[in-house]
Amino acid sequence: MAKGKYEHLLKPLNIATVPQMMRDGADSFKNTGNADSIYWLNGKEHLEGLELNFSWGFYTGLGNWHPGMDPHIHPYPEALVWVGLDPDNVEYLGAEISYCLGEELEVHTFDKPSVVIVPAGMPHCPSITQDVTNPIGYSFMIFSLGAEPTTTWMGDGMTDKQIEQMRQAQAEGGRGPSMVSSFSEKRIKVTPETLTYGHKYDHFVKPLKPFSTSLDKLTPEERVQYEKVTSDGMKVGPGNSGSLVWMYGKDLEGLELNFTWGFYKSPGVWHRGPGDSDGAHVHPTDEVLVFVGTDPSDIDYLGAEISIDMGKEHERYIFDKPTAVICPRGVSHNPVIARYVDRPYAFFVIGLSGEHKTTYVD
Amino acid sequence: MAKRKYAHLVKPLSVGGMDTEVMKGLKIPKGAFANGPGNADSIVWLNGRDHLEGLNLNFTWGFYSGIGDWHTGQDPHTHPYPECLVFVGLDSANLNYLGAEIEICLGEEQEAYTFDEPTVVIVPAGMPHCPLTTKRVWSPKGFGFYLASLGNVPTTTWMGEGVSEEAMKAMQEAAAKSGRQIPMTSYVSEKRLKKNPTKPTGKYAHLIKPLKTGMVTQRGKMVLDRLTPEQREQFDEMVKTGQKLGPGNADHLTWMYGKDLEGLEMNLTWGFYSKPGIWHRGVGAHVHPTDEVLVFAGLDPTDINYLGAKIEIDMGEEHERYIFDKPTVVICPKGLPHNPVVVRWVDKPYAFYLIALGGEHKTTAVD
Questions:
Q1: Are A245 and A112 in contact (CB under 8 A)?
Q2: Of A2, A266, A340, the CB nearest to B278
């Protein structure tokens, strides 16, 4: 199979498995709501320098995700996305999450797939999983607009030993996430009494609303969008998602970010036309295409075989493991073709601009 | 796109197209292939010399709905090569449905055999055959037919009383004037036979085989209990190496080998396909020790140039990819790696058949 010019743009997600995040594997996160298994890729090490780091993980545990460590801040903005694992219902989360925003520790609770937007420098968390009702759990993604995960912890529950351990791990490298951690002088105490229940940050918490790719189910606005996309002859192919979430910068408090989320169940091409391109296109901004599985017992299982063409030469790449495809601005990509699907898989785009401009090529 | 090394091996079926409207519009005689009310409504005919890179093969694909003789006054006829006549239905949900009743005469005796299910008729080299008559058509879509002849130039000696050298010449000239080359070398026999179908004695019954006898896939599942021990062995080997059918593979498929075809050095398939995805999992390209052609045809009798699907196939060890959405033949010379086949989308079920120039179908995975 083709090996070549664009090989460096396809990354199996397991290059960034974070073993120490395994709930039962590390003291720090044992008995917490944190991930059972997780990938965390960053621009510096894995994504060819993109100003992005992102995660994908499976979650079943209850409780605080980083006991004693939160709230925390980052020097970059991010979007935190909770999604369910029912491929027939993209609006089902199967869990209840409480999330604190701001120094006020304003609590926001939701039980539907949701995105929480966190501006650069804004204290956020604790994140507490109150309940998990889907027997296989749920998933969570971080989309952070920095090439290097960088966190300043503000919780007052960390012991000196814990801090020392984290510093040491970081100095040794190779353990835990590639995270530059620092510890704030200012500490914020988290107790039931210090939590608040206002509405100052309501606008940072948004449910994920899917739009159907079935024409008869489109709202007038969606139809306008659909017609815009299909006006040059592009049609939805059999391999595409029947129900897709797409959040743009305008939905994300003006972040230079847009992302999709959807389940994919069928073989075939994703886009038909225009012409012979079957969806080959370019964007004026960078994006990452992420293909992941939906089997929480094996994060390395995709459940499908996918081919994608890269570059104007249509170099074809084929994979059957969870994979990120980096599409630098101006590099043409697609068609995507699902050759077979054994189990529904999921896919998300992370586009590094508020809009998603597409120009079809060929 | 890089230079296309194998482009000459992937051809639209329309390269062998004959404009039957033009042919039918010709004054007497109508034309060698449309010279009977039962003959094709539309047809393509590709041959080794002109279209198939010298393969020792010529084959057709056509749609039929008319009642009556296929070559009025011209039959019986002979060829210097053996051939298979494959009568198939256009009901993609049921490979056992023909939707027509056909009578074919075999031998100098013109023993008339009749069938009304999908059937292959094996005609040894030199054996007089036909008249061929469509007696009845029940299917609103008519039926399909393909010829697989083991000669690279279609060559026919007509023995019917109603044909003359002059008529044949005029026929060819008239067709040539219509801008179409008839890729057929026609002769008229010294010996003439009057059309005179006789009651079958069973002498030629072994030359007529229902396609259902070769059924290997039904409703997307392999029919394992019908496999021969050799086929079973091959299948078990495939399973052992992780190979299996992909989602794009056949809904219904029949496969006739040389042993089913009176020992011909040929094996052929007929199948219906309706789903996107890859055809074979667990294997990339494969090779055969014999030549074969892969024929992708549509099932819309109103448009022989409609496939109803978009398909990609890799050719050569370089995996050069070819993509088509029109009826197409892919020529696979012996030893040339080909596959995978990946179906990008399907609007309407389509048909696929392969004609391989060996009695057996040995396949070796390359990658």
A1: no
A2: A340
